[in-house]
Amino acid sequence: MITIRDLNHDRDGKPTLREIDLTLQSGGITALIGPNGAGKSTLLSLIARLIPLQHGQIMVDDLQIGACANDALARRLAILPQTSDAAPLLTVRELVSFGRYPYHKGRPSAEDRERVEAALATFDLAPLAERRLDTLSGGQRQRAQVAMTFAQETDYILLDEPLNNLDIAASRGLMHTLQDLARTHDRTIVIVLHDINYAAAYADQIVAMKDGRITHHGAAREVVTDAMLSEVYGTSARVHRIGDTVVVAV
Amino acid sequence: MYPKRLWWLLALLGLCIALYLGLGARGNWGFVLSFRANKLIALLLVAVSVSTATVLFQTITRNHILTPSVMGFDALYLLTLTVLIFVLGGQTFTQLPEIAQFLVNSLLLMGAALALFGTLLRRGGHDLFRMILTGIIFAGLFRSVSSFLQRVIDPNEFMVLQANAFARFGRVDTPLLTLAALLTGGALIAAWRMRHRLDVLSLGDESAVNLGEDPKRGMFQVLVLVSILVSVSTALVGPMAFLGLLVVSVARQITPVMFHSIMLPSAGLVSAITLVGGQMVLERALRSSTPLVVIVDVLGGLVFLILLLRRKPR
C-alpha cells in the first residue's frame, strides 16, 4: 500500500502539487491521468524518490521515502526509466541482469542468474538475449526494460508515460504485459498515461489530477465520464460505453 | 572474448617494458636498470592515473568525448602554478624541497579541480555542448589570468614557471615517486572497488536511483577520485592534455563494453603501452629528444575532432 499524506511540492517557486492525500491499495493497475502540467509525473517521481521530497510524507508499506535505505527501497519498488540510450552497448541479457543489482551489488549468485533467465523467458526475450540494445526496435527495448524491472522482483512498479513513441501494437503489448504482471504475479502498478482510452481499458483504478490537485479517484468505469473530461481537461469529448468498455470519442 | 584481448594487451605491455629497460643498455647494468626503472614506474603511474581518471569522468558525464583536460584542467594547472610562483616568488619556490613543491601543488590542484568539475557538472547537467563550451570558456579565463600574472612576475620567475609548465619524465626522484604512488594507488584501488557501482551509475540517474544507488553521492566520490588522480599525475610530470582521450578512445575500440571491470584495465593497459612504448621508440629507436607529449597531443587532438564531428545529433 502506498500512502501519501499532506504532500506539497513547488518547482521554481510555482506550486506543482498541493495537499495531496492519496492511498493506493496493493494489487492492480492504477493510472494517473490529467492535462499537461497537472503534476502527475512529479507525483510519480516523488514516490520513486527521483526528486527530493519537500513537504509531506510518502510511505511504501513500512518504508518511508527519503528516510529508508536506498537499496531496501530498490527491492520493494521499481520505476521503469524512460527509454534511454545511455547504454547502447549492453545486450538484452546484460540489461536484465542489472535488475538483480539491488540484491547482489555486482556479484551475482547462481540464483540471480536463474532469475534473469526466468525474466528473459517470461517476456519472450530469450531469442534476443545476445542482441545489443541499439539494434532493437523501440517496443523491444521497452520490453527488455520491463523484463529488467521484473527481475528486480519488486512489489511495486511505476511507469512514467511508457507509451510515448510506441505504435499501437507495441502499446497494447506493453499494457497486456502489465496486466499480466498485476494479475498473475501480484505486482502493484502505477502508471502515468496520456491516452485516457488506454487508461480506461487497462487500469483498475484511475486517479485524475488537475493543477496539482487530485480531482477524481475511483474505478476506471466510474471516473471516465463526460463531466470529468470537461472538468479536468476542459474539453467536451463524449464518452461512449460499449458493453464493458469505456471509449472516449476523439 | 574481451578478457582474452586484455591478456594480449598485457603481453604487449610486457614486451614494451622489456625493450624499454633492456634496449641499448651499456656499461653498468645495475645503474642503468635502476635509473630506467624509476622512470618506468613514473610512466606507468601517470598512464594508469590518466586513463582511469578519464574513464571515470566519462562515466559520470555520460559521454565519450569529455576528459578532465578538455574541461580546462590543464589550464587550471598552469594557473595554480603561476599563482604559486607569483605568491611565493620563484626563489622560494625552487628552494622548497621537491616533496613540498609536489604536495603544495597537488593539494591546491585537487581543491581547484573539485571546485571546477563540481561547478561544471552541477550547472551543465548532461548537456554535452554546454559543458564543452563552459569548459573552453573556463580554460580561456584561466589562461588569461595566468598570462596576466606571467607578465607581472620577473623574467627569472617566468623561467621557473616555463620549466614546470610542460610534461617531462626526466627528473622524477624516488621519494617523490613513492609518495605519488601511494596517493594514486589508493585512488586506483578505490576506483576498482567502485567498478560495479560505476556500471550502475553509467546507466543514467533514474536507472541508478531505481537500482538503489544515489547518483549525487556517486558523482561526488568519483569527482574526488578524478581530482586526486589528475592532480597527482600532473603535479608529478606536468599536463598530458589529450593522452586520456586518445587512449580511452582506442580502448573503447578494442573492448567495446560499458563494464568497468573490463574498461578500467583495458584503458590502463592501452595507456601504459602508449607511454612506455612511445617513450621507448622515441628515446631508443629514434634517439629523438622530442617530448612524447607533443606526439600524443597531435594524435589525441585528431581523435577529439573526429569524435566531435562524427557524433550523431540527437
Rg calculated over all Cα atoms of chain A = 18 Å
The counted number of beta strands of chain B is: 0
**What is the count of DSSP helices of chain B, taking H or I runs of 4+ residues?**
14
Give the % helix of chain B: over 70%
Report on the architecture of this protein:
The complex is a heterodimer of chains A (250) and B (314). Chain A is built from ten helices and twelve strands. With 250 residues, chain A is of the alpha/beta class. Chain A has a six-stranded mixed β-sheet with strand order 6-7-8-3-9-10, sandwiched between helices. In chain A, β11 (238-242) and β12 (245-249) form a beta hairpin. Chain A starts with a strand and ends with a strand. Chain B is 80% helix and 0% strand. In chain B, α12 packs across α13. The chains are: A alpha/beta (250), B mainly alpha (314). The interface between A and B is medium-sized, with 28 and 21 residues. Chain A: Keywords: ATP-binding, Cell membrane, Ion transport, Iron, Iron transport, Membrane, Nucleotide-binding, Transport. Chain A: It is a peripheral membrane protein. Chain A: Its main location: membrane. Chain A: It is found in: Cell membrane.
